[in-house]
Automatic annotation (TrEMBL):
This is Uncharacterized protein. It comes from Edaphobacter acidisoli. It comes from the Bacteria.
């Protein structure tokens, strides 16, 4: 049996907004991966733990939809939204990434 792989179809993307005092400030916005790729966003992170993710684009109509997966195994093992964390039976608790994307 093949191992189940995590797939997130939503992630956080870095955006900018105008400050009341002038200039811009960065903030993170949750978007679907398809929408983020269509908007040409370039900075992504996991919406649950803030860890780095890898983007997978849809390659064919029969293939999986565009999605993201964690880059670090340690992030996927302790991320509250991951299969590895949900299926764990050792009583671990969810935590933020050890190296979050700023």
């Amino acid at each position: 049996m093949a191992a189940e792989r995590e797939r997130f179809y939503e992630c956080e993307v870095k955006r900018r907004r105008v400050r009341a005092t002038g200039g811009y400030e960065p903030f993170w916005k949750v978007k679907s991966v398809e929408e983020a790729l269509g908007d040409n966003d370039t900075e992504f992170r996991c919406q649950f733990c803030g860890g780095a993710v890898k983007i997978f684009r849809r390659r064919s109509r029969e293939g999986p939809a565009a999605h993201v997966e964690h880059k670090l195994k340690s992030d996927s093992e302790y991320c509250g939204g991951c299969i590895a964390f949900i299926n764990a039976t050792d009583g671990r608790s969810a935590r933020q990434s050890s190296s979050p994307v700023q």
